[in-house]
Amino acid sequence: MPLPADARMSGGVFAALCVVVLVGALLQVSIGFGLGMLAAPVLALLAPELLPAVVVLLAAAVTGAVVLLEGEHLDVRGTAWALLGRVPGVAAGAVLVALLPARALALCVAAVVALGVLASWWGFTPHPTRRAVMVAGLASGLMATTTAIGGPPMAMVWQRLAGPRLRSTMSAYFLLGSMMTFAGLCLAGVVTAESLRYAVLLAPAAAVGVLLARPLAAHLDLARTRNLAMLLSLAGAATLTAQQLT
Which residue windows are transmembrane per the record (predicted)? Predict the structure, then answer.
């Protein structure tokens, strides 16, 4: 895997980002979330100029792989309603990204991660009605466009779905939703050539995570893995908050 030529990022930082992306992709395929919640706080700490475009592009690639592997379990109707709700969320998020300073966006990342973890541990389980799915899609689009973390609202509204159906439905939603978010970021003028380059450089790490997920799935305790992922995400959010406030 080639190291970036950009002198502003050391080889050690790039290696750390590769590890985080690899683990995040593995979690995304195994439990249906993890890439955004794990990678976004680390990127905000080490390379904030790459957010949110790099995570959005990597998420599109990883979720596309899940759709190819488990697409037969997809809830097409639920995905469509969620994407319809996502449209105004993406539009509002693109405006915020264009207007907010980097520090405010970093604190938003930390807050979204913390709220997502706490809501998951709290056990809030809304019934996935059409209205609830659309509202979750709106919130997800807003959060994903501003912070690259759009998973918590969808994970809450779809948590009643079984494992393969949950993973395939969320992945299809995030694949198409990430494309919508990326288009919104492009229109807002916040996607740089540097972020595109690093998305390509980090793609092999994401691919390794996807390839490792299948053979490791049989050995993973999903409940423990989910809790570990949330603890790691929360630690990243806390570290990011401390850095921004000090």
Answer: 12-38, 50-69, 81-100, 105-124, 136-158, 170-190, 196-216
Q: What is the pTM of this model?
A: 0.86
Contact 63, 174 (CB under 8 A): yes
| Contact predicate 228/117, CB 8 Å | no
Please give the radius of gyration of the chain, using alpha carbons only, rounded to the nearest integer. Answer: 16
Q: For the chain, how are helix, strand and coil distributed in percent, rounded to 5?
A: 80, 0, 20
Maximal CA-CA distance, the chain = 50
Question: pLDDT tens digits for 47-58?
Answer: 988 989 999 999
Contact 149, 40 (CB under 8 A): yes
In sign, the C-alpha dihedral spanning 156, 211, 67, 23 is positive
Q: How far apart are CA 153 and CA 203, in angstroms?
A: 26
Question: Are the C-beta atoms of 75 and 169 separated by less than 8 Å?
Answer: yes
> Does pLDDT of 155 surpass 90?
no
Is 4's pLDDT higher than 60?
no
Q: How many helices (H) and strands (E) does the chain have?
A: 10, 0
Best CA proximity match to 69, nearest among 164, 158, 161: 164
Ordered by start, the domain boundaries in the chain are: 11-245
